[in-house]
Description:
Elements: E1 7-9, E2 15-17, E3 21-22, H1 28-40, E4 45-47, H2 55-69, E5 77-82, H3 89-103, E6 110-113, H4 121-133, E7 140-143, H5 147-156, E8 163-167, H6 175-184, E9 187-191, H7 196-200, H8 203-212, H9 216-227, E10 230-231, H10 238-245, H11 254-261
Parallel strand pairs: 3-4, 4-5, 5-6, 6-7, 7-8, 8-9, 9-10
Antiparallel strand pairs: 1-2
Helix pairs in contact: 1-2, 2-3, 3-4, 8-9
Protein name: Aldo/keto reductase
Active site: 52 (proton donor)
Pfam family, one: Aldo_ket_red
Amino acid sequence: MEGLTTTTKLNNGVEMPRLGMGVWKSDNTTAKHSVIEALKHGYRMIDVAKQYGNEAGTGEGIKEGLAALKMNRKDLFVTTKVFNGDQGYDTTLHAFEGQLKRLQLTYVDLLLIHWPVDGKYIDTWKAMEKLYHDGKVRAIGVSNFNNERMDDLLAHATVTPAVNQMEFNPICQDQDIVEHDNHLGIQVEAWSPLGGGESLSDPEINKLAEKYGKSAAQVILRWDWQRGIVTIPKSSHEKRIVENSDIFDFELSDEDVETINKLDKDKRSLTYDMFQWHNPKGAPDDVDKWDDSPADYKA
Length: 299
């Protein structure tokens, strides 16, 4: 039976839940409570990143949520990411120890390169391979890698990425990347799966929502599910956290899946050129600093 405990087997044999919760754009306090609520309502995968500035709050939420439910660490799948400013071999290894400390964990289930920083992502990957072989991560992967960078990474890698987390939603589908990763046995995972207001207000999606008696968000998340995309919708509200997981009592027809497929506009919310590491005129890529962040966050 489909549900929040349904998993997909990654290319190294690790079982990864197909639907989880992300904590992007949440301060530490909000992240903590969101994680606790998510675990209470059956979620078994949490996605965080150093760049979000809330690993500490997420770690507190994991600790308290597992204790409240009398669950073991092995019952939860935790993903974090190598911050762009930490990329490189030695810096990745050093920074990861700080990430484990903030998360209050001895290992993570999946570690991703957050963005492919040019000139550094190969060395970063070598460090991640060491962490993988040392047992500090159960799987390693990438995020925001196009086909060119993926092929470059594979030419230098001894471990094939298990996951490529990318922006994927009705208006940003990047079918060429999905097909390439599928061919390589790399699981595609969606960030920003709901595509913001433009997708949620799309007339076609809202017609389908009315047809199936579901919300626009639920229709989109069900579409992701039927496309075989691992999905991590973000919410800080208990009602929405529950709603996002209520997608297992209906199924979109093949025709309706294709209707959403045709909404693709190749419209991204973030691109390489927006960051200074790729474009000197781009925006700074600093770790978000929230008012409730630990003073020693960057340690």
